[in-house]
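re: the backbone from monday

yeah here it is again, tokenized this time
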């Protein structure tokens, strides 16, 4: 027994006595402020106070409840005062003859507390009591906890002595009775020890290898020292496999190698530990655990090896049940009677039956029918790569990064390999979070392969891993719509919608085949359907890409359809920021990862026209949603390629947009680069149309404003006005272009401190923008009006404008505008003297500006905090 447990037990015990009465007894904490003791210790209390002595402090308690049956002699007390951070005992029901017992109580001889040791002789009934010997129970020990040294848990509480003068032991009320009389204690115990694991850490544990050799258990050895991750799934599985849970069969599905069997084995071992008093009180207990597996092969670093022994039929499962339960009548019965004998045998005890790799069982339907009619004393757990819709199911995905890194380090340690955190991260990024693939890679390192060879990007998925995890599921699909859908899905970086997959697969005209194909892929755990989208694990995607490359004709046709679909999508939902642009841009945001994947593929294939046609509709979106790094990258690409091909229209377009983005970023080097770009473009303006020249003039004006050159900014606005005068525009476009002149004129007036003039112009801009549905321009003007209101001490008006404007900016996901509003809120709270609120708003604004690369604006906002 761990020495600290002897030290922890006295910290859980208390001395009890009724005010005005002689003598005392013992009690112990079972939950926060709750104490269990013998009812006879406090039977004369009536309405009087119960004194509690604990850790040299005095407290009071009242009787919360007493066992209804007087034979059980139990009472539950509650402290009147709040006692923070007190420990609680861990209640456990297991106790066997011969178990060594330990107690701590407050005797008449040693009222400050003393230990006593005993040995369990057995149990009696009517009422249930534990009979123990080889120790003396003195007055005062009634209600003392009885610790089972084998399990490390409290198996009962001392009730009475057989002889006070001799070491003849006594009797104790078992924990089973405590739980039956105070039913709320199980949940309270669980909640407490989940929060405070001091006692749990001290529980003795027999090695699982020795536990699995005990009768009525055939669990295979675990190949690792510690089960990593899956805490939520493990907790859910333990709840579902309890016999009190309604579903008779639990299925755990997922791709090969994702950890289904490991999860089920961990749950099974915890149940077997609970059976032998070595696990938490909430873990289900089974008298027998039977493991069967139809797995055909093992994956080792040296390759795939076939299993020599498997349970691939219902008869095989019968034989394994007979062997584990030591019941030869099952196999000795005629085949037609064996089912009856199996059910009869399973009724004799609580049994957990595990059927591993259901998908490779020959008579799968018969096995499912057998499991569906198990007696109520048995629970079945199935693992399968195929999704089986039955009673209760759980699907496993990849391990998250944190758990994957722990698994990598665990495997490296066990195989005596030194891996840095950086190298572990590289392995995770290369392989993903499929446990078997990570274990395989560490095994290869241990076999002498170099990390560089393993991380070779030209061969991302080892052949053995691919064959083990996917061949059995995918090969039968070849030539079917499901196979085309699988290969098409691999082309999408992020989970696509059904229409996109159907189009790329060439199955748009056959929706029935699409629905059946996607359903089949889901059944095989190759695809997951979530919120109208179809996704796959990274390892599955790598395998599917290999399949795609092996079908070159299909890939060529599918790629063409893929590009065409996203060109249409971008034209439909992209464009300028007018009308219901925020609704359209939300569609672009959901597909942004896939749009980028198409752009990169087209660039790699030198498909200049496709890149150009795909980029232009999404350009404004990248500006508003803050994807400025991607924006500059693709504008640079277009500048270089358009110059090489003398496509001046596109060259002007890309140059002006890149210069504008650099102007917004605002650092000195950005402004200098923007000026160089604008000058180069303006010098070639004779090749540009009105819209490009207008954009350049507007951008030059904004640049000069950023540089503090207001007169030159006015000159550029005059140039813009001359261009507009000679243009032939519809009234809506004329208002849009002219309001931009007014907006930047207002900017100059504001920066010069001419707030009244600026206010008039901003109000004009806001009105005009709202008239033509240009909500974004109206929101920017409103932000400036709020700034002016703060400058003019109209703080309530400023708050009104800011509340409305920030809501619009956040709803539209305009990151630059949102940061502007947050900075304005910081100014407002500073003007009101609310420095703490001002600081909070400024921090948000600084974070927003920094994410956009607007370092100058972040610095200006930071200066507000000084």
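seq for it, each position gets an aa:
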């Amino acid at each position: 027994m761990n020495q600290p447990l002897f030290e922890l037990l006295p910290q859980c015990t208390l001395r009890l006595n009724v005010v005005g009465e002689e003598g005392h007894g013992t009690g112990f904490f079972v939950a926060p402020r709750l104490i269990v003791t013998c009812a006879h210790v406090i039977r004369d209390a009536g309405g009087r106070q119960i004194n509690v002595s604990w850790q040299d402090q005095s407290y009071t308690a009242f009787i919360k409840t007493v066992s209804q049956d007087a034979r059980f002699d139990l009472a539950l007390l509650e402290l009147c005062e709040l006692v923070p951070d007190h420990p609680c005992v861990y209640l456990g029901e297991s106790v066997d003859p011969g178990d060594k017992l330990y107690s701590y109580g407050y005797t008449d001889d040693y009222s400050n507390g003393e230990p006593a040791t005993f040995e369990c002789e057995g149990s009696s009934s009517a009422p249930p009591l534990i009979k123990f010997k080889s120790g003396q129970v003195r007055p005062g020990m009634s209600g003392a906890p009885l610790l089972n040294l084998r399990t490390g848990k409290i198996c009962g509480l001392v009730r009475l002595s057989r002889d006070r003068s001799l070491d003849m032991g006594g009797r104790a009320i078992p924990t089973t009775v405590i739980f039956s009389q105070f039913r709320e204690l199980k949940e309270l115990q669980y909640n407490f020890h989940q929060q405070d694991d001091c006692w749990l850490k001290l529980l003795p544990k027999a090695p699982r290898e020795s536990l699995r050799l005990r009768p009525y258990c055939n669990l295979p050895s675990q190949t690792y020292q510690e089960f990593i991750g899956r805490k939520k799934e493990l907790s859910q599985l333990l709840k579902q496999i309890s016999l009190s849970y309604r579903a008779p069969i639990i299925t755990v599905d997922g791709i090969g190698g994702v950890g289904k069997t490991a999860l089920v084995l961990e749950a099974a071992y915890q149940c077997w530990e609970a059976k032998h008093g070595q696990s938490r009180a909430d873990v289900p207990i089974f008298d027998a655990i039977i493991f069967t597996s139809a797995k055909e092969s093992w994956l080792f670093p040296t390759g795939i090896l076939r299993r020599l022994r498997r349970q691939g039929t219902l008869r095989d499962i019968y034989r394994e049940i007979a062997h584990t339960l030591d019941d030869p009548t099952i196999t000795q019965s005629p085949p037609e009677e064996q089912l009856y004998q199996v059910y009869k045998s399973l009724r004799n005890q609580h049994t957990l039956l595990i059927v591993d790799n259901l998908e490779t069982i020959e008579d799968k339907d018969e096995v499912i029918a057998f499991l569906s009619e198990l007696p109520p004393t048995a629970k079945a757990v199935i693992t399968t790569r195929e999704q089986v819709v039955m009673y209760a199911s759980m699907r496993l995905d990849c391990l998250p990064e944190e758990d994957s890194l722990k698994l990598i380090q665990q495997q490296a340690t066990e195989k005596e390999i030194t891996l840095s955190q950086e190298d572990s991260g590289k392995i995770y990024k290369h392989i993903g979070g499929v446990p078997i693939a990570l274990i395989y890679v560490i095994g290869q390192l241990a076999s002498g392969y170099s990390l560089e060879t393993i991380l070779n990007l030209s061969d991302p998925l080892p052949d053995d891993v691919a064959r083990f995890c996917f061949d059995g599921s995918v090969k039968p699909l070849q030539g079917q719509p499901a196979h085309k859908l699988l290969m098409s899905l691999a082309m999408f970086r992020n989970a696509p919608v059904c229409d996109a997959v159907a189009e790329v697969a060439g199955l748009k005209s056959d929706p029935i085949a699409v629905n059946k194909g996607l359903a089949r892929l889901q059944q095989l755990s190759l695809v997951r359907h979530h919120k109208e989208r179809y996704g796959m694990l990274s390892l599955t995607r790598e395998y599917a890409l290999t399949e795609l490359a092996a079908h070159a004709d299909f890939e060529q046709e599918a790629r063409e359809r893929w590009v065409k679909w996203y060109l249409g999508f971008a034209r439909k939902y992209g464009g300028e920021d007018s009308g219901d642009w925020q609704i359209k841009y939300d569609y672009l945001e959901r597909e942004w990862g896939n749009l980028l994947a198409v752009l990169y593929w087209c660039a790699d294939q030198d498909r200049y026209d496709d890149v150009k046609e795909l980029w232009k509709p999404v350009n404004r979106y990248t500006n508003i949603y803050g994807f400025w790094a991607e924006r500059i990258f693709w504008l640079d690409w277009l500048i270089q390629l358009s110059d090489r091909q003398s496509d001046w229209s596109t060259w002007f377009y890309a140059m002006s947009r890149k210069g504008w983005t650099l102007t917004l970023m605002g650092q000195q080097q950005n402004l200098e680069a923007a000026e160089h770009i604008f000058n180069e473009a303006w010098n070639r303006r004779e090749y540009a149309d009105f819209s490009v020249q207008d954009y350049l003039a507007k951008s030059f004006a904004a640049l000069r404003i950023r540089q503090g050159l207001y007169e030159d900014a006015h000159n550029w606005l005059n140039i813009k006005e001359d261009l507009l005068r000679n243009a032939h525009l519809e009234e809506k476009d004329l208002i849009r272009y002219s309001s931009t002149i007014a907006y930047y004129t207002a900017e100059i007036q504001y920066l010069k401190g001419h707030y009244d003039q600026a206010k008039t112009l901003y109000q004009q801009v806001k009105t005009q923008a709202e008239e033509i549905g240009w909500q974004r321009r109206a929101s920017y003007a409103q932000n400036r009006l709020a700034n002016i209101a703060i400058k003019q001490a109209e703080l309530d008006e400023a708050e009104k404008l800011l509340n409305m404007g920030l809501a619009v900016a956040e709803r539209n996901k305009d990151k630059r505008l949102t940061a502007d509003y947050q900075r304005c809120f910081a100014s407002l709270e500073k003007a009101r003297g609310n420095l703490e609120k001002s600081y909070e708003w400024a921090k948000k604004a600084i974070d927003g500006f920094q994410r956009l690369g607007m370092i100058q604006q972040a610095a200006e906002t930071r200066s507000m905090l000084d």
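The chain has a mean pLDDT of 89. The longest helix spans residues 552-573.
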